[in-house]
């Protein structure tokens, strides 16, 4: 895969003799939105720091935009990074803050009106950051991360503490950037909210990659049942009574026939729930522990 934005091949990292990243291999491609999920300490931030060139792997190959990220500044303009807890100088306005980051990236300090608009800060751009809410700071963090149309955008826990509206906006911006060809890597604990946002999910457990695929692929691999719930008079075949409704667990292949049978039996208030990313993630962790 020559046009990969990021290549990891057998990457390892230890801190003080404790291995926190084990033989990690994967590629990220242009236009992909990839979720990096894992519990605390799974090694997500360490991977992001390695991609930024802030931490060096002990072994293996790591390439970002065709080069070793720890060598020089070739990729700085083409990289965007939103750290987990973003800090800005409180007495700077958003405009001054962005001018500062633009200079660091070698971009013009002024002329970022469209960016303020895009992140919803146009009206607050000339107010000091000290008066900003958490959401506004996060918007500013996102603005600095997407300065200069990065080809690789690394977002570390970008939605923690955001309200649902801002979360949706953030994912909207991420989708736009990916459509324009950027690679976006989002690390997260909040697995369920990623449904529909990331085209691919990398599941990490204690420094190891334990699953890699689209949501559909992970669903298929996990083989977890969907749950059909409904109300009905009588006792539908194969259904279990849970509270005031009936419940049937179904594989993918069983869904059409079971839905038909439920309808024919006069089922009402029908819901069909597929396993969530949380269920799938728990499944892979259980399998790993076994
Ligand atoms: N500079 C460091 N020195 C020593 N140990 C470190 C250092 N940075 C990270 N670690 C350890 O490496 C492991 C992986 O940490 P990392 O921050 O990459 O995990 P994470 O998946 O991002 O976790 P979280 O979700 O809590 O941010 C953890 O056990 C952490 O304590």
From TrEMBL:
Q: Does the keyword ATP-binding apply?
A: yes
Cross-referenced Pfam families:
ABC_tran
SUPFAM superfamilies on file: P-loop containing nucleoside triphosphate hydrolases
| Gene3D superfamilies hit by this protein | P-loop containing nucleotide triphosphate hydrolases
Keyword annotations from UniProtKB, A to Z: ATP-binding, Nucleotide-binding, Transport
What domain of life does the UniProt record list for this protein's source?
Bacteria
Q: PROSITE patterns attached here?
A: ABC_TRANSPORTER_1, ABC_TRANSPORTER_2
User: In the record, what terms sit under GO molecular function?
Assistant: ATP binding; ATP hydrolysis activity
Q: Which residues form the ABC transporter domain?
A: 6-231
Query: Which family is annotated?
Result: Belongs to the ABC transporter superfamily.
Name used for this protein in its record: ABC transporter ATP-binding protein
| Organism, as annotated | Paracoccus salipaludis
């Amino acid at each position: 895969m020559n046009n990969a934005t990021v290549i990891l091949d057998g990457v390892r990292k230890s801190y003080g003799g404790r291995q926190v990243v084990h033989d990690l291999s994967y590629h990220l491609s242009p236009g992909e939105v990839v979720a990096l999920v894992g519990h605390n300490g799974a090694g997500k931030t360490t991977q992001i720091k390695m991609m930024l060139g802030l931490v060096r792997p002990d072994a293996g190959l790591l390439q970002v935009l065709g080069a070793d990220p720890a060598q020089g500044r070739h990729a700085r303009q083409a990289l965007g990074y939103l750290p987990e807890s973003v800090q800005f100088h409180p007495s700077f306005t958003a405009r001054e803050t962005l001018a500062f980051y633009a200079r660091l990236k070698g971009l013009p300090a002024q002329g970022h009106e469209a960016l303020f608009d895009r992140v919803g800060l146009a009206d607050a751009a000339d107010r000091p950051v000290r008066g900003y809410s958490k959401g506004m700071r996060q918007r500013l963090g996102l603005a600095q991360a997407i300065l200069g149309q990065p080809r690789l955008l690394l977002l570390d826990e970008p939605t923690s503490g955001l309200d649902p509206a801002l979360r949706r906006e953030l994912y909207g911006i991420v989708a736009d950037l990916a459509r324009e060809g950027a690679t976006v890597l989002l690390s997260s604990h909040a697995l369920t909210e990623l449904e529909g946002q990331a085209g691919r999910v990398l599941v990490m457990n204690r420094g190891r990659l334990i699953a890699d695929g689209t949501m559909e692929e992970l669903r298929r691999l996990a083989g977890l049942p969907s749950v059909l719930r409904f109300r009905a008079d009588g006792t539908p075949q194969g259904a279990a009574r849970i509270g005031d409704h009936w419940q049937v667990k179904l594989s993918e292949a069983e869904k059409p026939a079971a839905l038909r049978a439920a309808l024919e039996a006069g089922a009402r208030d029908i819901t069909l729930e597929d396993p969530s990313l949380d269920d799938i993630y728990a499944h892979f962790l259980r399998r790993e522990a076994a």
